[in-house]
Amino acid sequence: MSLQVGHPAPPFDARSDDGRRVNLVALRGQWVVLYFYPKASTPACSMEAQRFEAALPELEQLGATVIGVSTDTEARQASFRDRCNLSFPLVPDGNKRLARDYGVVGGLRGLLGIASRETFLIDPQGRLACHWRDVNPATHAGEVLKELERRTGAC
């Protein structure tokens, strides 16, 4: 499945690591940074998550919500959140539904999980505004922040 910028983002209603619902329709009116990562608690995934956490106050000031997704279990996601002191929701996507809907599943027929680090910026109307593939975990949160500043007219 190939998603196209400008088209509606695939809807989702998922449970986060802390048991709360995360629903794209309920997030209308906000920017959504939906980022997919291969495996919780690995060095690069930890770095990327911590960079998003550090940028979170600025992202929220621009009206954005950050949501991280991997195919890890709820328990592993919760442990990752606690270990990295994350305050944004992490979605365990064990059945790979979200990953399939967003086209980020990899491996033999999608059996291996999330293939690469990918991020989708979803606009307040629920359309895909931007899509990044194979991102650098050390600099990506800053790239997303700059793009959001550009799109909202903030400096």
UniProtKB/TrEMBL annotation:
Residues 3-153 form the Thioredoxin domain. It catalyses: a hydroperoxide + [thioredoxin]-dithiol = an alcohol + [thioredoxin]-disulfide + H2O. InterPro entries: AhpC/TSA, Peroxiredoxin_AhpC-typ, Peroxiredoxin_BCP/PrxQ, Thioredoxin-like_sf, Thioredoxin_domain. It is an enzyme of class 1 (oxidoreductase). The keyword Acetylation does not apply. PROSITE patterns: THIOREDOXIN_2 (PS51352). Transmembrane segments: none annotated. Keywords: Antioxidant, Disulfide bond, Oxidoreductase, Peroxidase, Redox-active center. Thiol-specific peroxidase that catalyzes the reduction of hydrogen peroxide and organic hydroperoxides to water and alcohols, respectively. Plays a role in cell protection against oxidative stress by detoxifying peroxides and as sensor of hydrogen peroxide-mediated signaling events. Belongs to the peroxiredoxin family. BCP/PrxQ subfamily. This is thioredoxin-dependent peroxiredoxin. It comes from Deinococcus malanensis.
